[in-house]
Every structure is written in C-alpha cells, then in structure tokens.
Amino acid sequence: MRMLKNVVLALVAAVIAAAPAVAEEITDVTGRKVEIALPVKRILLGEARQIHVAAALKGEHVFDTIVGWRDDLIKKDPDSYDGYRERFPAIETLPRFGYIPSGDFSLEAAIALKPDVLTLNLEARDAVEESGVIDKAAAAGIAVVYLDFRVDPARNSERSVEILGQIFGAEARAQEFIDYRRAQIAVVTDRLAKAGAIERPKVFIERSPGITGETVCCRTFGPANFGEMVEKAGGHNIGSDVITATFGDLNPEQLVVANPDHVIVTGSNWSAESDVNQFVAVGRGADPGAARERLKGLMQRPAFATLDAVKAGRVHAVWHQFYGAPYEFVPIQQFAEWFHPELFADIDPDRTFREFHEKFLPIAYRPGYFVSLSDGGE
C-alpha cells in the first residue's frame, strides 16, 4: 500500500511539473506590472544573494530553475557560497554575471541562457533604465522584475518574498516564511511594547569598516535597514538624527559628540575585495576569536578612543549580509539582548537562526554571525 501511495504521489508531482506555465501579472516593488508565465521555468538572479530567500522557498530544489546569477555571492559572501557549494556542487559551473551599475553585466550572455525572468535589486533601477536593459530584455522575451531587501526593507521585504514565491511557484512556502519572520520580530517588539517607557540606549552602527585603506569613519545608516533594526530592538540609532536616506555618513566629530552607549560594526568575509583586510569577518562558520581581534583593532581609531561604549566594552559586530536579506529577525533579537539584557535574558538569537535553517534552508547551520568585545575581547 505504501509503495502504491508513493507511486501515485510521484505521478502527481510529475503531472504538476509538466503542466504548462500560465501567464499572469506580477506587480514588482516599483509598481511595474509585468506579465510572465508562472511558475517560471528559467530564472536569472540579478543578485546571487537573493538565494537566501529562494532557498528558503524551494529547499532542495532551489537550483532546478536557476540558469545563472550575479557574481556577488562568491565575492561578498563567500562563506555562504561555500555552504551552498558543499550542498550543491554543480553551482560551481552555474554562469555568473557582473553588476549592471558597474557596467560589467553582459546582456548578450544573459540572453544566450534563454531566461524567462531577470530579478534585479531596486538600487540598480537608475542604471538599468539608463542602459535600456528592460526594453532589450523584453525584445528577447525576458521579463525584468525588481525586488528590494535593502533600500526600504520595512516596505518591500515581504512583498519581495511574495514575488519570489510567485516566480518559483512556492506561494504557500513564501507565506510560511513571512509568518515566521513576523513572529520572531514580534518576540522583541511585543515585549518592548509591554515594558512601556524604557530608556533607549544611543547606538552607532558603522557600515562595513576595514574593507579599504580608508581608516576614518563613519559610514552609517539612516532610519531604514540596520537603522530600523536598532530602533525595533529598543535602541536609538544616532544616524537617524542627521541622515534621512538609507545610507549616509557622520563625521568623526559628530560621533564623539553623540557618545553612543553601543557601537556596532557590520562585517563579512570580504577577502576577495579588500585591499587591507581590516574588516571583521563574521558570518557562517566565522572564527569568533579572530573576529574579536579585528573588532578591537577598529576601535583604536581616533574617533572611537574616547567613547563610553568602547571604554565599557559595549562594542559588537554583526554580519553585514543581514542588510540585504529578510532575516532581520535575527539581528533584531541580538540587538535587543545587547541593549536590554535583563528584559531579553531568555532569548537566544543563535537558536532562532539555527531553527530557521532547520525549518527552511537546505544547508546546515554554522554559528559566527555576531561577536562582542564584552564576550572576552576587552
């Protein structure tokens, strides 16, 4: 009986897989209406880091319909790339493409792969429109769809997950992802709401220091992206006091005057791009001791030496790639634990992220996404 049931299920799956795609209308995050046959049979990821969502939707079958991707994962997040390569060795031969705003994207090579859709990030929009990529792609039968997990994630992340759910034929799984994300964020925001009026520590979050030879600070975040995560976790992002865009700069004098209670830097394994290798390499399987030493080194810069946060060891690093994937629930939980340790003594962001991997992702979890000087690096 069980064998017969398995045969029937296999036949049903085969029929579904063989069913013709149906042309439907998708509205992307810019409001563009794009007609495309769903589910899509051949997908070109205009940013490879979109795999962090696609894999959560399709699991073991995530690469079944991906015909190519941008080269950013192997350059900017090689630890994650290694995780997917270990599980899916064939991706080493998956065609890679450059970045349209940098001028190293070959539309001709992309067209040769005969994709049905090209997914692009919102921040590439100006360059895409100036280059005429959308019209040229359309002439070749390729739909262009914009997603956004970075510029305004509060507004666009869930919609982008839904769009990828449509593209990959995984709408139900997309909703499961969204529900899980909401619930994990609510673990923090609901408790903060119940706590009432609490003191919000001042937080400075520095964007990707130590990649280049520039040793001065201070690239940071305004009210969106990591800036919003700080606020949701019960902190006050000092960058939002002077910056209205998603990203911007403070000068060292502004940082000294603000004298934040916590300093957070974003880091990743940027060894393929860095000319100085002073970045904090946190991420999948990172060495916490080595990351902590890098973090200590960054705090020796003149702008940081007098800060109360540095003197007290309230200095932390967070995986930079959280800024471009809808995994914000993990840093929000970690930030809350850093900012309000008594209120959030029972939460475990590492456990949360491990659970997420087990529920949604086809690769094994390896810790290393956060480090603090107060954990033994003073």
Automatic annotation (TrEMBL):
Keywords attached to this Swiss-Prot or TrEMBL record, sorted alphabetically, are: Plasmid, Signal
Alphabetical list of PROSITE patterns matching this protein: FE_B12_PBP
Q: Which spans are transmembrane here? A: none
A Pfam family it matches? Peripla_BP_2
Return the InterPro entries for the record: ABC_Transporter_SBP, ABC_transptr_periplasmic_BD
Q: Where is each Fe/B12 periplasmic-binding domain found?
A: 42-347
Give the range the annotation lists for the signal sequence. Answer: 1-23
Task: Kindly indicate whether the keyword Magnesium belongs to this entry.
Answer: no
Q: Which CDD domains match?
A: TroA_f
Question: What Gene3D superfamilies does UniProt report for this protein, alphabetically?
Answer: Nitrogenase molybdenum iron protein domain
Q: Which SUPFAM superfamilies match?
A: Helical backbone' metal receptor
Q: What is the recorded name of this protein?
A: Periplasmic iron-binding protein
